[in-house]
Amino acid sequence: MTDLDQVRAETLNSISAASDVAALEQVRVTALGKKGGITALMRMLGDMGADERRVFGQQINAVKDEVAAALEARKIVLEAAALDQRLARERIDVTLPARPEAQGRIHPISQTVDEVVAIFGQMGFTVAEGPDIEDDFHNFTALNFPPEHPARLMHDTFFLPEKADGSRLLLRTHTSPVQVRTMLQQKPPIRVIIPGRTYRCDSDMTHTPMFHQVEGLVIDRTTNMGHLKGCLIEFVKTYFELDDVPVRFRPSFFPFTEPSAEVDIGCSRAGGELKIGAGADWLEILGCGMVHPNVLTNCGVDPNEYQGFAFGMGIERIAMLKYGIPDLRTFFESDLRWLRHYGFVPLDLPTLTGGLAR
Amino acid sequence: MKFTLSWLKRHLDTGAGVAAIAERLTMLGLEVESVDDPAARLQGFVVGHVLEAEKHPNADRLNLCKVSTGQTTLQVVCGAPNARAGLKVVLAIPGVVIPATGEPLKKGNVRGVESQGMMCSWRELKLGEDHEGIVELPPDTPVGVPLTSVLKVDPVFDVAITPNRADCLGVRGLARDLAASGLGRLKPLAVEQVKGTIKSPIGVTLDFTPDTAAACPLFAGRLVKGVRNGESPQWLKDWLTAIGLRPISALVDITNYFTIDLCRPLHVFDARKISGNIQARLARPGETLAALNGKTYELDPCMTVIADDRQAQALGGVMGGEASGVSAETTEVFLEVALFDPMRTAATGRKLAIESDARYRFERGVDPAFVLPAMELATRMIIELCGGEASEPVIAGRVPADDRCFPFRPQRVAQVGGVEVPADDIRRILEALGCRLDGGPILSVVPPSWRADITGEHDLVEEVIRVHGYDAIPVLSLPRPAVVRPVLTAAQKRSGWVRRGLAARGLVETVTWSFLPTAQAELFGGGQPELRLANPISSDLDAMRPSLLPNLLAAVARNADRGNKDAALFELGPQFDGDRPEDQQPVAAAVRAGRSGARHWAQSPRPVDAFDAKADALAAIAAAGGPADGLQVGGEAGPWYHPGRSGSLKLGPKLVAWFGEIHPRILAALDIKGGVVGFELFLDAVPLPKAKPTKAKPLLKVSPLQPIERDFAFVVDQAVPAEALMRAAKAADKGLISDVLVFDLYEGPHVGEGKKSLAIQVTLQPIDKTPTDAEIEAVAAKVIEAVGKATGGVLRG
What we know:
The structure holds two protein chains of two kinds. Chain A is an alpha+beta fold.
């Protein structure tokens, strides 16, 4: 065995035996460093004759390459082992809770308004608004309330103090004054819905002094009660996201519409649980009718030329029905537990293409 | 409005059942709120025959009866004193639901003896109050048949009448509508005059001025002499009892009967208690009346009274007086059939807080043409039930003129209703309702006297559509726009973005009242007299809110009371700066209380501070599409903020938002412990985005070169706003400096009294070539110079 063979064998052995990267580096220095065994043999080349040098040079280069490859291969193995070892030490308890992030909510009233707007929006209704503090004309007179109508009297309407001229402003008792404002500002054809705050001097289990309504108004030359039925039946089905909801139009009375109707939807109360859809019972959800000719006249619209319908419903009521919220009063209590439970995450933007609700 | 089935059938000839009648009433707009059909709850009860009755072996007061069901014989333990052999009884076997308890009967064991059934009292059947003993059916009642086959039970309807349908506050009115809709035939109402055999000793006058004559335009009176005011016949007592009225005496029951039956309230005076003549007049100042309900009322000269020569004896259209009321001793009765002004009657009833069946009808309007017929009918009934002889009528005033006659275009039914109703049907419906029709293609229609609500063609159109049935109206699709376009205004979209933007930041949306206690309104600059409700629901809700914050703060306090101290709430809604429409402005406001979050093993929560509120405000403005960069931050917010820890965000002179810590004095006044921060964004101050010709975004320009960051620490006076320093640094080289951020603030002994150290990181973004070290140094020098010039700041040594 030549020295070269011996150095090769020893080095390769040492490489296999190196137990960590540092030991391997030591092997590399021992073999290939300035004072290394192979380096020493390389130095011998200078003292050799040309032929001998050529042969030995080839041999020693082959050994050098072989050692370098072995070093690299071993290094990869050792590094992988070292990484495994490190990772084996680096353990976290993944069951610990992640850093908290606050989740906001959208109030069910806002969400329901957005749903209603999405539905009527695609039927071509725009959204109109008006002031909460109204006058007698817009809230009552223009809407064909007779002068002594009980709704004008103290027990229903919130009044502001009497002015020097004897007039009194009031908090609108319905969103209908915005119908009046719309007709006074805009020529037919008109299609608007009007969501907003409304106020009645009433407070018990099922009434709150403030609540929300959405009003609808369609005025043109041809819209009749058949369209009213079609429009509201479609609304009900779309809103409740049910294909089969029986809808019943029942004659009723409102000063500002004629003919007037209340709309009932089918429901079941079997087992004490209210379920919207086909069932034995009816549930009233909104009032509607053809706009009274007196209202049109009061708003500067010629009733011989134009006609149309109006409807109104309680936002909280339809939200309660759809989302199973049991108590009206809780809408206004700002109880975070309630808001988190019944509220909607901000990404739940209702659309007709993506569905109104999850 | 309650009535029974047999009562209805007095006016309506129909074979329709209870359910069909109820359904039709509802679909005529006469909404049936309930039908109480005793037959439904008497299912399963049979007629039993007590064969034997012996003493219970173990109980003195109980009987042990053998009761035949016709098929078998049961052993029944019974405690009723009248249980005896031979009796025909109402028998329930186990499983039958007892109406009084709502529970099914179980087989019982009473003191060691099995009881296989139950014999019931009227009260247990919910057919009366009698609970003295078990029901004794007539001896000839067949044994074993269902109880409902031998007991006459009368279903009771309760109908909600809309305010326009005064005529349906009488059973006959309901019958007429049902007949018009094809559910039976209205029976004729025969009115025969009762011949007066004596002259009334009591005269009647109307004592009004022309201005007030409408208070009582017509008064018909009649004396009946020699009456005996005993009990009413059973049929009348049954009907009144069934609808919740207590039978009192024949004369009183007759007035109640006319009220319910024909919507014709009457009054009866004991003629012997009337002094002199009767006059209808307005009350005199200071006049009082002891009414039939036992209360005494102070009257005022707006109220109509019926008076004798001495004093007021009744409140016209509202209630009779105690002094002249009929009693068992009454032998001479004076009948009043009159008309009273609806508005005046309503006002009187409201002022005196008297609810009565008479007021309810007069304020909605009774049939003016029916006064004299009703007087004849009532006189006849008095004589039938109480005997006596009638005087000639005494009548003051006259039936008010009614010259209503409307042109009616039948095609309007289809135009408005969307439903084709054949001409014959139109005519039949209107005539059945009592209209008189005349003429050709355009009819002229005279509505009936009892339908004051019909005031024009539109009302006739409604009547036809209503009686024809809404179900017959075909469903039509509302014609759609060819392309759905956005329907929200820019301002409406802005509100939506802000709402969802704030919720995305972890704030929870709430909705609070538009009003609040005046004391709280005053804390926030409100409480003006013109914004205080004249009739608040409670003193807690008496002022319109001048700001959204107080209600949000109150919500924070309520949540803290429930153990949730770290509330983060927001609201979008109106605030009221005055009572004109333009004084109402939309605001987005939020509050954060307590700590920044829950405790966590990896990070500690910190108390919320003004910068949380500032971040919320800026995010809301950004969500609203406002110019985030163009805002000036000022140091002063509304007086309800901490004066040193709050600020304003302005666009030029226009205030956009306030943010900061809520003033400790406000928190104390609202009983809130711990700090709260908040902001108010005045949405209308955020400029609406300009309508752009294209939605395309400007072309993105990015540099391929690495940005370079350099840090500087400046010592400045404490009063120097950080923003001034940042702005100066940024302006030092507009071409190269792309961003400046503050990464440290130090105040303390190392920089000296009244000073602070602000450390900033300046980012240089080369555009076309990498700057040399010398160029970078030059920019750094410019930054130092610019900051020094703008703020007096020097590099920290």
